[in-house]
Write a structure and sequence with these properties.
By secondary structure, this protein is an alpha/beta fold. The protein is about 35% helix and about 15% strand. The strands form two sheets. It has a five-stranded parallel β-sheet with strand order 1-7-6-2-3, sandwiched between helices. A two-stranded antiparallel sheet has the order 4-5. β6 (about 185-190), α8 and β7 form a beta-alpha-beta unit. It binds zinc ion.
């Protein structure tokens, strides 16, 4: 992957030294970690109750409005700063690996981006997170097995139920055989309502013997 390393911290904007990746030491040490993976029925798991058949779910960081984490996610999504996804993904993976509940997976896969948005942006912001997580956990990953079929631009004008139906219909697994009897970690950058992750997970759930866990780099502060 082609990585772009800017010379400023993606959290607070200070100049970075050559050896620093995407974040300054100050931002790294005060990351608002949730440690959700240590707790059964954590906030993300409760959000997905009855909607997704999951083994476990966790979000790495709390994301208050206008916070450093908010700026990091913005840099990752809109400023081509994939180094931030890789750096935070690597840290998230290290935390998961040392946890009791989420230490092992067979595959890590990203929530796919709309094909139209992928063309505009040139990258899926979840790919670098997945690569960081998988590297830390020494797990296989696949960036193109779960895909989005077409662009659903008019989504915001639909009712909640219609929107859900629409989203469900657009995800597709290219090679289901590769994920049979596997424990898959499905990764998103931010989970807010959970409707996208719900649709993805429910498409994956049709695969024989699959177990699904969910990971999000950030979760909005309530
Ligand atoms: Zn900083």
């Amino acid at each position: 992957m082609d990585l772009f390393f800017p010379h400023y911290c993606a959290g607070c904007g200070v100049s970075l030294r050559n050896y620093q990746k995407a974040l300054c030491l100050h931002c790294l040490t005060k990351l608002p970690r949730t440690r959700m993976h240590d707790f059964v029925d954590n906030r993300l798991e409760r959000l997905l109750w009855g909607r997704v058949s999951y083994a476990s779910a966790s979000a790495f960081l709390r994301m208050p409005k206008n916070s450093e984490v908010h700026r990091m996610i913005h840099e990752l999504k809109y400023k081509s700063n994939q180094a931030i996804g890789l750096e935070l993904g690597t840290m998230f993976g290290a935390e998961l690996r040392s946890s009791e509940r989420m230490s092992h997976f067979d595959y890590v896969i990203p929530v796919p981006l709309h094909p139209k948005r992928l063309k505009e942006r040139g990258y899926n912001q979840c790919d670098s997170i997945v690569q960081g997580v998988a590297e830390s956990m020494q797990t296989s990953y696949s960036l193109d097995n779960l895909v989005r079929n077409h662009y659903n631009a008019s989504q915001t004008r639909m009712s909640r139920y219609k929107r859900w139906q629409n989203v469900e219909a657009i995800f597709r697994v290219v090679d289901p055989g590769a994920l049979e009897h596997a424990h898959v970690l499905l990764v998103d950058d931010v989970i807010t309502t959970g409707s996208t992750i719900e649709a993805c997970a429910n498409v994956l759930a049709d695969i024989k013997g699959i177990r699904i866990s969910i990971a999000s780099l950030a979760i909005p502060q309530v």
